[in-house]
Amino acid sequence: MVSIMTIPKAAAKATTAINNMKVYGITNCNTVKKALDWLKANKVDYEFHDFKKLGVSEQKLNEWNDKAGYEKFLNKQGLTWKGLDPSVKESVKGAAEALPLLQQKTSMIKRPVIEDGNFLFFGFDEAVYQQHFNK
To answer: What is the pTM of this model?
Structure first.
């Protein structure tokens, strides 16, 4: 499942022209590779933030939570979540428990995360990318 937050197209066009887009992920993730390949093929400039090397700040997680809700980017389908002790999984009742866990175990963040102005997207969906980047 993918998650989308959008802004009006006119504003999106202005935002992408600024080239302040950031892609968050890990380099060995197949979904991230697909997204990066798509962006390169469509000549979309971006800055890459590698969770494994750089981590993710508490501020950034709070920002995403405020915009989309942590449920949109907590990946419960991945091996990291599935490998957690059941008591840890059961303890996640809200953002107060989820965000520190996501900061500690960045592999549980649904990826890639695309930030482009007010556009925030978790995952890869070619149709959404085409619509947003007007390709």
So the answer is: 0.83
Closest CA to 74 of 54, 48, 56, 49: 56
CB of 112 closer than 8 Å to CB of 124 = yes
Tokens of 23: 């892609």
The torsion of the CA quartet 100, 105, 109, 113, rounded to 10 degrees, works out to 90
Dihedral pair phi/psi, residue 4, rounded to 5°: -135, 140
Q: How many CB atoms lie within 10 A of CB 135?
A: 12
List active site positions.
Answer: 29
- Tokens at 61, concatenated: 């997680």
Q: pLDDT tens digits for 54-106?
A: 999 999 999 999 999 999 999 999 999 999 999 999 999 999 999 999 999 99
